[in-house]
Amino acid sequence: MAESVKLKVTDSPEAALKDFLKALLEKEVVKAVLCARPTGSGSITYAMAGNAGEIDKSSPLAPCMPVNAGTVVSDMTKVQAFDEPVAAVLRPCETRALVELVKLQQASLENLLIIGLDCYGTYATSDYKKLDSGTVLLEDGAENVRAACVVCEYPVAPVADIEVGLIGSDPGSEIFLIGKTESGKDALDKAGTGEEGASPKREAAVEELKKKRVDALQSLVKDIQKEIAGWDGVSTYFADCINCHNCKTLCPVCYCRQCFFDSDTLEVEGHRHIAAAQRKGSVRMPDDTMLFHLTRMNHMGLSCVGCGLCSDACPNDIDVFKVFRTIAHNAQNEFDYVPGLSTEDELPLAVYREEEFQTIGE
Rounded to whole angstroms, how far apart are CA atoms 161 and 274? Predict the structure, then answer.
């Protein structure tokens, strides 16, 4: 059973990957494939291809992520798991979000073959639409990639049945498919594309990229902690918030059927607003913007995978991601927890450990 397969690139890396996806469908290894597909407007969406011909319409390597596809899988499986095998081509932050959603009982991995893309980064949708050509295979250090990608410590999907090995390969001539699970290795054998082989440069290249991104994350955390120090810093950072809740809507780990902030709980009579204004001198409207962000940080910080879509969603260009990533980074370190690495890792607030937080800092 092959653990690693080399695909020769004759046209483009994406064409080689699409040939593999077609083989999965033609040989009935899977019944459908979920992956990125161009829209008529020059952007990207996700589509479920039910036959090999539809794969030609896809663009699995397109460096654009309009939504975290972990939520797409969640939408399809949280009521009932797939009853037939389906492949999903996902980026690392998408697989990590999916793992967290599984632990939150919002998704299922049953009958799902995860094909994890190595990821050098993605563009915001608006920037992607400006590109001269459709798919662009990014390399490390590409300009104008999303801020979240620059500090992502997981360029390789930590949970995947098959890794699409772009890092450490020469994508002009070859890419690698690495089987990480028995089902992944079995799928490689049955697809029958490529020849057995592994990249000798992959491990070192992955570690080098991880180190670079960890250093970038540490720098971001340090800078943001200074910028939001104290109430004045936080309130200034979020001063342009209009309480639209777009960041919540696009966040893959905000899953509540009805958010507290979308309920009528905070709706009050007009005279209460007048009383508050008279008492305080003035009241910012719309109100409760800071309460919203602080509650979200508390609610989803431990499961934040740093996909950065919260910033992409903001109509006023607030870099929400940078604050959320900083708070999440610190909280996850306190609990010694990294989201999305394994379905076996228990959510910190769902389990009691007697040895936690034995000392109180100054």
Answer: 58
* Of residues 317, 304, 312, 315, the one with CA closest to residue 252: 304
Dist. CA 98–CA 273, nearest whole Å: 41
Contact 158, 183 (CB under 8 A): no
The 86-90 sheet, strands edge to edge: 44-49, 32-38, 86-90, 112-117, 162-165, 174-179, 4-8, 195-196
Q: What mean pLDDT comes out for the span 265-272?
A: 76
CA nearest to 122, candidates 93, 145, 151: 145
Max Cα distance, the chain (Å): 76
H-type alpha helices, 67-128: 69-77, 92-103, 125-128
H helix count then E strand count, the chain = 14, 8
The ranges assigned to domains in the chain are 4-205, 210-257+286-350
SS3 content of the chain, % helix, strand, coil (to 5): 40, 10, 45
Q: At residue 52, what is the residue type?
A: A
CA gap 175, 6 in Å, rounded:
6
Name the phi and psi angles at 264, rounded to 5: -95, 10
Contact in structure between 26 and 193 (CB atoms under 8 Å):
no
d(CA 76, CA 81): 8
pLDDT digit string (tens) for 124-158?
Answer: 999 999 887 666 777 777 888 999 999 999 999 99
Residues 220-249 have pLDDT tens digits of 999 999 999 998 999 899 999 999 999 999
On the question of pLDDT at 46 being above 60, the answer is yes
Say if residues 307 and 93 touch (Cβ distance below 8 Å). Answer: yes
Residue with tokens 């949708």: 125
Q: Contact, 146 vs 319, CB < 8 A?
A: no
**CA quadruple 328, 333, 339, 343: dihedral positive or negative?**
negative
